[in-house]
Amino acid sequence: MTLPRINLDHFFALCDDTGIFQHGVHGIPDPKEGYCTDDVARAIIFLCRHPFPPAGSRATTVLLRCVSFLNFANQPDGTFHNFLSYDRRWCDMIGSEDCQGRGIWAAATAREAPPLNQAARGAAAEIFQRSAPRIARFRSPRALAFAMLGCTQIQDSDLARDMLRHGADFLVRLFKHTARTGWQWFEEIITYCNARMPQALYAAYDTLENEEYLDVAERSLRFLTSVMFDGNRLEIPGNRGWLKAGQRKPAFDQQPVEAGTMVEALCRAFRTTGCTEHLDRAAHALMWYHGNNRLGIALIDPATGACCDALMPAGVNRNQGAEAVLSYLLARSEYDATLSLAAGASFEVPVA
Prior knowledge:
12 helices; single chain; mainly alpha
């Protein structure tokens, strides 16, 4: 398949001297809705992953600004605020568990990021050190998965390994409690960011080499692909009810973040197992953004790099916010890197 080049025009348009605006009105930022740590964390992870020049670029400037935002959001007890108004006032006392998990993931990523100087990495390391112990209190499986994906990037920390093991054991117990014939999943419902859970278990296996983590990762991801694909087309459960065990999957509204997390999990599965079926599926999932979806409509605008916020019954949601574009950028950067890895190894590269 031929993909357009990665275009960061819209991403940079959403960024200002505070962070990244959460929402867009069509193709322009919406300052009325302010900022959120969730999206700043996604931006940090993307900017640390994408191969930018090491210093002096616009991307490095935005990355430093986002790490500063993350530090501003991080409180003395290790928790993170989430929602910040345009006048730089926090709108909450503490963000959701998902926000905590994403904040930890971003801090761990920045701690190890070559584009950042040593001082900035040191600040990120302090955020991680303050916040990571809170992983032991998480009850949201997605929050655990986000934090686990951060912990796997740190090789020299007993705290990171302990929290990674805690999260992986929690997900395995959850899976064993819920999984049964015909429903190999962690919960009785499939909602949002679903693929992060098997992705985190693949990553935990790569670090801790616990075969049980790999077994649950494979079983849960194969089940998820069975309900998320119709042949070679990604059919995301819509957020108008999600997908409950034993019920019909709602067709709309389909969220870009689901396609993105699916791509990333499948790429991780390929990296762990070498199974080219996973990489083939990742290619088809990525094409959801480019029109291989229920309506045959592309959500990506190659001219700006923007991504529409949802696939709806009558078309796309024309607003273009941070979550949508970052879900694509994270997926695309991970897919491109994985494809490059596959091309240099003894694997057959799939054609989407």
